[in-house]
Design a protein that fits this description.
Length: about 240
């Protein structure tokens, strides 16, 4: 028991209660860090579901969705029985991983994520503060609807178009150009990680709340929703790539 307690203590610097807005994404980021940092070695067992859920401040249902993603990525496996649990699989290098590493190392991830958030929140705030024309509001609603209707393989393209539409409607050509450039980098990074249905559903709720705030003229709410939305994407990218 003492050994188990000491093991959990070693994880405490990484595992902490997540914020309410992006619980799934932040929990995934933290457990990915545990695995990728080698805090639980290959063949080792993660803390029990109940304990992990308590450490992260999430429900066991959400935790199981997170663990399912890790299983799908070949990072952990679930074993049943008295000595069962969730075990970290030994990592084996591959040419694909080497290529991914080179791609990520060529980008300052934190700089890209910060700049993206500044531009996105700024565009959302501008659109809400100055108001949209009827044509602009229709364009934004149409772009939003396109993301809701997108088949999975086409989601990221339509998501990009939604965010670019918001940037264009801000009325700043410079902001739009800078956003297009940083979004291209973000998309390159997003192409390195899996599409997660739970994350996409969450993003869609945030998109809807964002459009409502913009059309209501609530600049503060629009910026807050966009910052939370960017934080969710950032958590996934840090978890898989950092």
């Amino acid at each position: 028991m003492a050994e188990e307690s000491g093991f959990t203590d070693r994880l405490m610097p990484v595992l902490r209660p997540v914020r309410a807005g992006n619980g799934f994404e932040e929990a995934l980021e933290q457990i990915l860090q545990v695995v990728r940092l080698g805090l639980v070695p290959g063949g080792g067992r993660l803390p029990a579901e109940r304990e992990l859920a308590e450490l992260l401040g999430i429900s066991r249902v959400t935790l199981r969705e997170v663990l399912k993603v890790l299983q799908d990525q070949g990072l952990v496996e679930s074993r049943r029985g008295r000595y069962g649990g969730t075990f970290v699989l030994p990592r084996t290098g591959s040419p694909g991983e080497d290529e991914l590493r080179r791609k990520v190392e060529s980008v300052d991830l934190e700089d890209v994520l910060r700049f993206r958030e500044v531009l996105e929140a700024g565009a959302a705030g501008l659109c809400a503060a100055q108001g949209l024309t009827d044509e602009g509001a229709d364009r934004l609603r149409t772009a939003l609807a396109a993301t809701h209707e997108a088949p999975l393989p086409d989601y990221r393209r339509r998501d990009t178009l939604f965010h670019l539409t918001l940037a264009e409607l801000s009325g700043s050509a410079s902001l739009t150009a800078q956003y297009a450039a940083v979004r291209a980098t973000v998309n390159d990074l997003l192409d390195c990680i899996p599409l997660l249905v739970r994350n996409l559903e969450h993003s869609q709720h945030q998109h809807t709340s964002l459009v409502e705030a913009v059309l209501d003229g609530d600049a503060e709410a629009a910026r807050a929703v966009m910052r939370e939305h960017c934080a969710g994407t950032a958590a996934l990218l840090r978890g898989f790539l950092a």
